[in-house]
Amino acid sequence: MLEIKNLHAEVDGNKILRGIDLVVRPGEIHAIMGPNGSGKSTLSYVLAGKDDYEITEGTITYNGVDWSEMSAHERAAAGMFLAFQYPIEIPGVATMTFLKTALNAQRKARGEDEISTPDFMKLVREKSKALNVTPEMLRRPLNVGFSGGEKKRAEILQMSLLEPTLCVLDETDSGLDIDALRVVSEGVNQLRSPDRSMIVITHYQRLLDHIVPDVVHVLSKGKIVKTGGKELALELEKNGYAEYVDEEAA
Amino acid sequence: MAAVQETIDQVKAIDVDQYKYGFVTDIESELAPKGLNEDIVAYISAKKDEPEWMLNWRLEAFRRWKTMEEPTWARVDYPKIDFEDLHYYAAPKKREGPKSLDEVDPEILDTYKKLGIPLSEQEILAGVAPENRVAVDAVFDSVSVATTFKEELAKAGVIFCPISEAIREHPELVQKYLGSVVPVSDNFYATLNSAVFSDGSFVYIPPGVRCPMELSTYFRINEPNTGQFERTLIIADKGSYVSYLEGCTAPQRDENQLHAAVVELVALEDAQIKYSTVQNWYPGDADGKGGIYNFVTKRGDCREKNSKISWTQVETGSAITWKYPSCILRGDNSQGEFYSIAISNGHQQIDSGTKMIHLGKNTSSRIISKGISAGVSQNTYRGQVSAHRKASNARNFTQCDSLLIGDKCGAHTVPYIESKNSTAVFEHEATTSKISDDQMFYCQARGLDDEEAVALIVNGFVRDVIQQLPMEFAVEAQKLISISLEGSVG
Ligand SMILES: Nc1ncnc2c1ncn2[C@@H]1O[C@H](COP(=O)(O)OP(=O)(O)OP(=O)(O)O)[C@@H](O)[C@H]1O
Ligand SMILES: [Mg+2]
């Protein structure tokens, strides 16, 4: 279970998160929506443990463990996964190599044996097929020259291989064509399980038709200003954020 | 910057010396008295049972050397070397050039085992498929101690032996080719080497023969205060092919040690030589104390048409590296290649690169250099590409990339391009980059710790060059890259 209490965070001295309270139980999917610049990606970075993102107040605990002193790779081994809004290029490192290195690094951190090459190959073939990731893409350097949609699919492929228990998807739907949106959503839904928590950041109700959330939050100026059921997303689609943004200012 | 800075700090906190080849072999040695004069030159020559022509060649080099000055143009900085304070010859005592493995001191065999180089043919055969076998010549201080698979190579007509043996047994070849690529008077260190070289490898591939296995030499400096001056000569006769690997290590010592080798390659018509090096001499400790001074002259001559020479190097060791494996593209349609990974860490200083000298028509060359600097090291790529008046249609492509880890190190690129023929086309591309915080975070968010992330990104950066290495070497090189970045950054 993820518990965020009164979380304040800043980057380079800029206060961005201003008191977030959020509890995500195993099996739940929470959607976070909100205007550009409201702090959605910042929240995802703070959760993943990015350097320079400083928690100035409040706490993050996961399964009862305080995450404030844990580095990004330790959080990954503990089950955290962030699907990046803007995936990073790693030149010269074949996607396949990257996947194997990541998987083995996490296994090592958990005191497990490395996966054998045949087992790994089988696993990748199976998972990549489901996400329409071609063998050719797996040979290419990670994210280098990938189209926007290919990058997002590669993110979800990583997620399905690493089998995290806390998934944060930052605008995974942006840049996806209609078919890809369906494929990616199916991939995410497959991972839906009673042991897994997900936070889905998006601007569009469309994604939430595919990945149906239990709870929807509106983030504005670094705070959650409204929480509701999935119908909240529909309402936002119709009326925009004006009401909540103003409410917060008032 | 934060992520990278943290990496550096973390790595700094680890016990810095990760150099795992730093042990000393305890063995009785026969040493020449310190210092250099004509008597010492004669002493070395006599030890090797050399014919008179060889002694005269050495003496001529020595006299020449006395008139020369140490070069200072490279971007390296070190206290003046006292050439009188060195031993110019050291040999494991008891035997002069063992005839078979049974005669090699077990301590030395053990040393090579520790280095991961089995010298017994049975041991090699035990673990490897026939096509992956590697014939090894092991040079310990000044003497070649064992050459494996000699008989099998002889069946193919290939000569692979210590150069001291070649001087005695194949004088016609040695006389014809020694000094024909790197002349005696070439440069300060090459001339010194010509006077005092003690051993090294000799390879001759007869016409039309594809050498049936990889050939390899492992150089090991053991004795303190001893210069190592090997000499390697490889001749690929018409239509032949050979792939040759060179590996180097040395014990961890507080004093600096001098290594000044000369390598000459000759490729005749339609012949091809592939020369790969993994240089991992002791780089010195975290404070920059100790380490090897590596002043090496390596040059290949594409002497006849359609010949090809490729240099691939992975340079991770040495306190100072001064090294420019070069190609003289004399034959028409000949090709030269230089693929290099140079990693500098801690206080290391590397000044390395290549020269591609286009003399023949339709000659082409390709240079891919990847420099990685970390710690407070300095890493310079120095490359010369030139086309002679008659070198019509000469082509060169140079890609020179530098990667910086941290902000106390330096990367420098010094290209010299000179064309005397208007049909020559030379392309030069250079980039300098840093490992970005975003790349680090992305890898960390996937579960890689700081060192694993740096190693992965760096291995990606050098991929084009790693692909040029023979399989087994490529795996070794990748490990070595990770280890050298682990140990001495900061
Ligand atoms: N390093 C930084 N220095 C200063 N301001 C920053 C920095 N990083 C982010 N910000 C600011 O923090 C705010 C929140 O950014 P964030 O990326 O979290 O927004 P977002 O909600 O994800 O927006 P979008 O919907 O456009 O993706 C923005 O105003 C942004 O400019
Ligand atoms: Mg965002």
Automatic annotation (TrEMBL), chain A:
Gene3D superfamilies reported in the protein's UniProt record: P-loop containing nucleotide triphosphate hydrolases
SUPFAM superfamilies (UniProt xref): P-loop containing nucleoside triphosphate hydrolases
InterPro entries attached to this UniProt entry: AAA+_ATPase, ABC_transporter-like_ATP-bd, ABC_transporter-like_CS, FeS-cluster_ATPase_SufC, P-loop_NTPase
All residue ranges annotated as the ABC transporter domain in the record: 2-246
Keywords: ATP-binding, Nucleotide-binding
NCBIfam families membership: sufC
The protein's name: Putative ATP-dependent transporter SufC
Organism: Pseudovibrio axinellae
UniProtKB/TrEMBL annotation, chain B:
InterPro entries assigned: Fe-S_cluster_assembly_SufBD, SUF_FeS_clus_asmbl_SufB, SUF_FeS_clus_asmbl_SufBD_core, SUF_FeS_clus_asmbl_SufBD_sf, SufBD_N
Xref: SUPFAM superfamilies: Stabilizer of iron transporter SufD
A Gene Ontology biological process term: iron-sulfur cluster assembly
TM spans (from-to): none
Domain SUF system FeS cluster assembly SufBD core: 219-461
Highest taxon, organism lineage: Bacteria
Domain SUF system FeS cluster assembly SufBD N-terminal: 146-210
Similarity remark: Belongs to the iron-sulfur cluster assembly SufBD family.
Protein name per its UniProtKB record: FeS cluster assembly protein SufB
Source species of the chain: Pseudovibrio axinellae
Lineage, top ranks: Bacteria, Pseudomonadati, Pseudomonadota, Alphaproteobacteria, Hyphomicrobiales
Gene designation per UniProt: sufB
